[in-house]
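Support case: calcium ion complex. Customer-provided input:
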Amino acid sequence: MTTGTTSTVTAIRTIGTTMPVAPAGSQTCRVYGDPHVQTFDGRKVSFYSTGEFWIVKSFPLAIQGRYMPTPITNGLSVTKVLAIGGDMMEGHVLRISAKFAMWDEEFILTDFPSTWTSASPPVSIVYNDEGDYLQQGREGKQLRVVTVSLPMGVSLQINRWDELGEGDYVNLKIFQHGPLPNQDGQCGNFNGDPEDDSRAALKQRLGSSSAWVADEDLLFKERTPVMKTADPSIDDCAADRMPQAERLCGAQSPNGIPEKECIIDVCFGGDQFAVEDANVEVAVGLAPGPPA
Ligand SMILES: [Ca+2]
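Agent response - structure generated as follows:
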């Protein structure tokens, strides 16, 4: 388990049950890289698949992310576009990528720096170079930050990246003053317990280990075509194998980003596939398939 915060989880004792509450000082969720998520409860979870996923799923607020690969990520996905909707947005949808921002059908924030506001719902956006770096290896580079203030005290910091040879993507941090009603998604359920933010727990609650968005809930106009790849899917990697696979494959990769094929190899084949580089092609053929 990754401990992202040092705050302690306090418990409210009710009749017959102990319910954890969100720890103070742990009210952010971070989505970065290819993409890794540090949940509101402080657990690190990795999602590599292509498609549209729930980052925050709640009654008042919906934040969905479109994940796709870029040239540097060896087939693993990064966050390409965010879509923000839900009851608090009063029927509007805000979409933000590294290249554009749209309020419904209107392009906004077309200048740098710039600001944009809506009276109803009360939304204000500032686009400038002020904010934290959200991903290792980015320090010192020019920041382009979209800071979005939403109703109910929710705000987002979105770092836009579009460097030559990398492709465009965003990293983001979500700030909340406590959990929203029925909150779930890749940022976790914000109940103070990091244990139930795992992919396995998500699958149990949402029916998908990656918090995949169903057609009727999709805030995007189109769905990213799912590219059919060779059978073992990274989604089927056992939770207890993933950290080891990431570590071994990251150490072997020239740019530190684990290759998808390596992850799959280690998950389904074993540790030796990460280090036996020369034999990978042969080894894949011998690796057992994913659990049915
Ligand atoms: Ca949790």
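The radius of gyration is 19 Å.

Case will auto-close in a few days if no follow-up is received.
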